[in-house]
Amino acid sequence: MDHQERSGQTAKAPGTQPDHAQEELRSATEVMAALLRSAKGVRTYLANNPVLVKYLEELEEKLGAHLARYGSFPLEVEPFSLSYRGSELYRNEDRRDNLALRLHADGIRVVQFASGIQGAELATFLDIAGFERPDRDDDDVVTRLWGAHLPHVSYLLEEDLVGIDTLVIEGEAVASQQEALSEITTALAEQPATPQQMIPKHLLMLTADEAGWLRKAVQADARRNPADDVISILAATLAGVQDPASFEDFTAVTGKLAIDLFVTGQVPHAQRLVRFLGQLMGLGSLPAERRQKVGEVLGEIFGEEVLQALARTINETDALSREDLHELLLVFGVPSLGGICELLGRIEKLKMRKVVIEVLIELGAPRPELFAPFLADPRWYLVRNVVLVLALIGGPKALKMIVGLSTHREARIRREVLNFLAQSPDPKARPYLLKFLRDDASALRVRALKIIAQQQLSFALKPLLALAASEELKHRGMEERLVVFETLGELGAGQVVPLFKEMLVKKGWFKRAVSRESAQCAVAGLLKVRHDSARQLLDELRRQGSSELRAVIDQAVQARHGDAGTNAA
């Protein structure tokens, strides 16, 4: 059964009772099973549903047979169980949809069913006592039962048991409360059923305002989260505990609870705990050794489990606002820089990534060297994130740390360094671009050349002339070689025209494929030169050069015009 319900499982063993008692208990167990089945049916189906009608008919039949044979069906109510003449028929430890708990909470201690009860009356009783409806008013079970006028259902309240004076029970002293309940219900069975019950006295004592206040108080209590109470208790304990060993124990418990709350998705409660630990860290009156312990616990909280949970919460929900994330990461602080950098690589939402970057800048700007250990991390994406943060921090220290990665084994890291050098406003960053002219990756070499040309970095002219004359360049791809000479043309102006002319007219250069490629490089460079001498040389070569040279020039000019049109579009 749902919610750990058990019907008849705890009844006394058959061998311990007379045969008649065993048969009566067996009959009561069957009635209880039918009662629970009908209660679920009332909760699940509409009143005219055939399944519910069948359940109620079976309950009416079994209860009627039991009443006809044994005269009564009393149920003794405990918080989590219902018993019949001392034998437990029903137990449910779950607080949700708990028939016994709902009756007991409203003061009912005994429920009695009388002969003549029918399915409609049973359905009304179960609709009131069996479960709560969200659209139902806030009257308690006692008030609703009284208002329903159920002639074959009676009940005893707790105060009725205390002050009962209408029942005379003779004989020896009652051995136990359970035996007393059994005797009271037997006596009740001998009385005629009353059509209705008097309103309990405690309800008559409440005014409308008092009842409204009480109703709101009960609702507020029902909405309380147990985690809030636990957090409040832990916070109060840590704030007041004097014994160092107890402080360490409670701090460790707080850290473990915070981890569990993060992992289970209860981020607001976890953040409340972390915020409190951060406040403890900031107390000047807290001894240094305790402050150190709190710092250690905060570091343990921000481990892999919490990283995964935070990334999942941020990527898949809106449970954590930008402000909350900013506050949370600042509490974890400098000791968790590595974890925060790791989190940056796992977050997909751009706005939340910006928050993490802002926190890293805020934590690391005063001391960029704090990021140095993470630049040697084997995870390239973490190093990339650190480079991004250092680039935004800026300054000589950050520049030195970033430039140190220009020979990093991972090309994606070197690309980030190159982008930083291209965008940095610091003039001292520009000369480091020359390192990339001999990078292992052709794409990065070409990118560096285009940056140098675009920014008109004249200090690069001499190294580029040396590169153009080297054997190394001859082994690089044609596209890269063209870019080298175009960059020379951009930077050298009239200074490089003689070099290009020599490449075009010198004997032995213009031979077959190799010579043709050299001519193409020279023409590409001339087309980038912003000087009249370059245009004059091209015109001269068109008139006096060989047909093959003229074809190379025309092809290069057409290609340039095509690129210009594409860029303009």
From TrEMBL:
Region Disordered, as annotated, extends over 1-26
The cross-references to InterPro entries, in alphabetical order and at most eight, read: ARM-like, ARM-type_fold
One Pfam family linked to the record: HEAT_2
Q: Which SUPFAM superfamilies did the record assign?
A: ARM repeat (SSF48371)
Name-wise, this protein is HEAT repeat domain-containing protein
